[in-house]
Amino acid sequence: MPWLRYLAFALALGFLALTVVNASWLAPEPKGAVKLIADGGLRQLPAPDDNDDVPCPGTRIEQPAHDYIANTARSIARAAKLGAHVIAVDVTPTADGQIALFADETLDCRTDGTGPVRGQSMAALKALDPGHGFRAEGGTYPLRDGETGAIATLAEGIRAAGRARLLYRFTADDAAEADLLAAALRAAGRDPVAAGDGFHGPPAPIARIAQIHPDAWAFSPESARKCTSAYRWQGWFGIVPAACRGGTLIVPLDRQWAFAGWPNRLVARMEEAGAHVVVAAPGGGDRLAGLTFPEQLGEIPASFNGYALVDDGFTVIPALINRFDDRSQAEIDAAQAALERRRAAR
Q1: 241-245, long-range: CB within 8 Å, 24+ apart, which pairs?
Q2: CB within 8 A of 196, min separation 6: which ones?
Q3: pLDDT tens sequence across 203-252
Q4: 277 and 205 belong to one structural domain
Q5: Cβ atoms 153, 125 nearer than 8 A
């Protein structure tokens, strides 16, 4: 029937138009290269059987390949030395008005202390062992009795990061904590906009920090989900959703094909909209997880110049930036053995 032919012809034309509109190869190649965000600096990875349903998620860890603990100055400094472009740190206020770099709301799981972190002074936190609660496969506690005073202040974290940028991650949905962090940054002489830092966390502190620093990169999981979800269908029509303007788009490593114009056209659209693009580990979900295998870097297009979140900085960072790789042979061997165990557990 004639109308079927017309319909088929119209659909073919529409498909051709969408193909041209979203053709990555027709977009200019982005300038620069992928930038790695080291989560916590260098951190321990959870054991394969660890999950959010246990009392202390994240404290069941793989057999360690190194003794670094996330958010400590030592961990941040080594990640920066290896070449991390950005280091994500967790920020939590203390009872005496300081900012501690610590992820949990309470001390009971990771440390030898008890009670809310916010109820302790910085001096009290400095007296604790931040590796006390990490239990490795086999039932051992390999990180106990580590460095005294390892729980870092904000100022210590800034100094340890050197020239690396920081991504401050709020640990509570309290707008007042954005004011506390902003004041602490001023006291430390850190201008987050000039330094290229960013902010991540629940909606209330992110909304407040955006008022204090309107030109800074700031996003919540909710705002990133809105941008990502909207672009996955609107992008095919060449539309940059309102949720993505000045926002953050998350691209799971195993879903790159679902994003129109990936990578060059998408990057051009997001740059024009003032948005950031972050590649994350496969699977997505509520937790923004990072790369844990060096070979995952090979799945990111060479022309992509956005960010990639990294959970295992000890192995992934040197795979991309080997000129700064100062690991000893013993450290390399231990990291390789950990990778092989992780691959076998997949």
Answers
A1: 244/270, 244/273, 244/275, 245/273, 245/274, 245/275
A2: 165
A3: 999 999 999 999 999 999 999 999 999 999 999 999 999 999 999 999 99
A4: no
A5: no
Beta bridge partners of 321: none
**Can you give the pLDDT at residue 306?**
97
* Domain limit, last residue, from 172, 193, 218: 218
The C-alpha angle with vertex 132 and arms to 169 and 340, in degrees rounded to 5, equals 80
| Sequence-ordered list of residues with C-beta below 8 angstroms from that of 149, at least 6 positions apart, any chain | 126, 127
Euclidean distance between CA atoms 100 and 219, whole angstroms:
21
Buried b (16+ CB within 10 A) or exposed e, 294-311: bebbeebbebbbbbbbbb
Alpha carbons 247 and 219: distance in angstroms, whole number = 7
Q: What is the pLDDT of residues 99-154, one digit of tens each?
A: 999 999 999 999 999 999 999 999 999 999 999 999 998 889 999 987 778 999 99
SS3 content of the chain, % helix, strand, coil (to 5): 40, 15, 45
The radius of gyration computed from the CA coordinates of the chain, to the nearest angstrom, equals 22
**pLDDT by residue (tens digit) across 49-96?**
766 666 787 789 999 999 999 999 999 999 999 999 999 999 999 999
Give residue-wise pLDDT tens across range 240-287. Answer: 999 999 999 999 999 999 999 999 999 999 999 999 999 999 976 556
Contact 98, 184 (CB under 8 A): yes
Range of the domain at 193: 37-218
224 and 214 in a common domain: no
Same-domain check for residues 209 and 235: no
Q: Which amino acid is at 301?
A: P
Give 52's contacts (C-beta < 8 A, 6+ positions apart).
none
Q: Is residue 304 a contact partner of residue 73, using CB atoms and an 8 Å limit?
A: no
Examine the domain organization and report whether 180 and 239 are in the same domain: no
Domain annotation covers residue 3: no
**Rounded to the nearest 5 degrees, what angle is found at the Cα of 51, between the Cα atoms of 47 and 53?**
150
Q: What three-state secondary structure class fits 222?
A: helix
The packing angle between helices 73-82 and 313-320, to 10°, is: 20
Q: Are residues 171 and 229 in the same domain?
A: no
